[in-house]
C-alpha cells in the first residue's frame, strides 16, 4: 500500500508500480489519473498493462516492465 492506495505490483528500488487493468478501469479513468498524479508526487511511476496483454503476450509485458524499471 502506498499512501492508502493498493497497487498490483510494486518495486521499491525502481519506484515503479505496475497496474494490470481489466474492464473495471474503463469506468474509472478520472480516478486512475488522480491516483497516478498523487503517486507521481511521491516519486512513484505507474506502468499500466492490460489483462489481455498479460494473458496474450506475457513476454512483451515483462519486457515493458524491465525497460520501465531500468529507466
Tell the overall outline: flat
The parts where pLDDT drops under 50 for at least 5 residues are none
- Decide which structural class fits the backbone: alpha+beta
Give the spatial strand order of the biggest sheet.
Answer: 1-2-3
Largest sheet: 3 strands, mixed
Descriptive account of the structure:
With 71 residues, the chain is of the alpha+beta class. The protein has one domain. Helices cover 45% and strands 21% of the residues. The chain has three helices and three strands; from the N terminus they run E-E-H-E-H-H. The chain has a three-stranded mixed beta sheet, sandwiched between helices. The radius of gyration is 12 Å and the shape is flat. The relative contact order is 0.21. The mean pLDDT is 89.
Properties at a glance:
71 residues; alpha+beta; flat; 3 strands; single chain; 45% helix
Summarize the structure.
The protein is α+β, with helices and mostly antiparallel strands and 71 residues long.
How are the secondary structure elements laid out?
Layout: E1 9-11, E2 16-21, H1 29-41, E3 45-50, H2 51-56, H3 58-70
Parallel strand pairs: 2-3
Antiparallel strand pairs: 1-2
Amino acid at each position: 500500500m502506498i499512501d492508502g492506495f493498493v497497487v498490483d505490483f510494486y518495486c521499491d528500488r525502481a519506484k515503479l508500480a505496475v497496474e494490470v487493468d481489466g474492464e473495471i478501469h474503463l469506468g474509472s479513468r478520472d480516478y486512475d489519473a488522480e491516483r497516478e498524479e498523487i503517486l507521481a508526487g511521491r516519486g512513484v511511476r505507474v506502468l499500466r498493462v492490460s489483462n489481455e496483454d498479460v494473458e496474450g503476450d506475457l513476454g512483451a509485458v515483462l519486457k515493458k516492465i524491465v525497460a520501465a524499471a531500468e529507466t
